[in-house]
Amino acid sequence: MASSSDATASTDSTSENESGSGRRGRVRLRRAAVMAVPATAVAAGLMILTAQGALGVQFAISGMPFTVTATELNGTGFEQFGNLDNMADGSPNAGDTGGQVLVITSAIKNATLTKLCQSVDLGGTNLVITAGGGADKVQATNLTTDSTELSGDAAFNNIEIGNDASTLDKAGVQGNKGVFSQQADTVHIGNLRQTNYATTAAVFKLPGLKLRFSDSGC
Q1: 4-35 as b/e: b if 16+ CB within 10 A
Q2: Percentage of residues of the chain with pLDDT beyond 70
Q3: Average pLDDT, stretch 116-128?
Q4: Where are the transmembrane segments (predicted)?
Q5: Strand-strand pairing, 126-131 and 100-114
Q6: For range 147-176, the mean pLDDT
Q7: How close are the terminal C-alpha atoms of the chain, in Å?
Q8: Is residue 136 pLDDT above 60, yes or no?
């Protein structure tokens, strides 16, 4: 007959196995979602769950989201497609995500932004960066942003929806084969608002840059 301690050990082992299976199941579901998620452009209220590609983010994200807003974004060479961002091993921000975040990756070859604001909540205070509020606009080349939410009033020129992400050629960035994507010659988004996990750019010019701490974010 098994002792009570043996039964307890068996129960604990079963719980750990079930917990581990649950975590692995969530990761598998997120990976599956990347392959199936549609990237649909909607003028007024664009909200897409797609993600990063091979030339998107190349670093371990912190797992802390930050907000980006602009009164206007104009770009040439636009792409969106899907994958996963990964946090550093053992990140305290991982929670029950397994250290992975399903994100939007938007890639733009050349972009200008008016009245850019970026803020991150540090817990009780916000670090706020603003730029491009004067005559000179923010300029970026080879810009990519990995987001979980994106909204604004959008317009595209010569848009293609349903491409395989590995075949994109408008912004010089390719995603994984079999992933749903879209691309366009040009993009305009008014009243842009994003919840981002990462941003990269080959060149990022921020005229009138101001950095400060504030009780409120963007």
Answers
A1: eeeeeeeeeeeeeeeeeeeeeeeeeebeeebe
A2: 73
A3: 96
A4: 32-55
A5: unpaired
A6: 95
A7: 64
A8: yes
In degrees rounded to 5, what are phi and psi of residue 170?
-80, -35
193 vs 27 pLDDT, higher one: 193
State the pLDDT confidence band at 68, using cuts at 50, 70 and 90: very high
- For residue 57, name the pLDDT band (cuts at 50, 70, 90): low
Kind and range of the H or E run holding 195: strand 180-200
The span from the CA of 218 to the CA of 215, in Å, is 10
Longest dimension (CA), the chain: 83
Compute CA distances 72 → 96, 127, 138, 182, whole Å.
Answer: 36, 22, 10, 21
Task: Report yes or no: 80 and 150 within 8 Å, Cβ to Cβ.
Answer: no
Q: If you write DSSP's letter for every residue of 153-188 in order, what string do you get?
A: EEEEES-EEEEEGGG--SSS----TT-EEEEEEEEE
101: enclosing H helix or E strand: strand 100-114
Could you give the angle at the alpha carbon of 130 between the alpha carbons of 199 and 83, nearest 5°? 15
Query: Which among 82, 54, 76 has a CA at the least distance from the CA of 173?
Result: 54
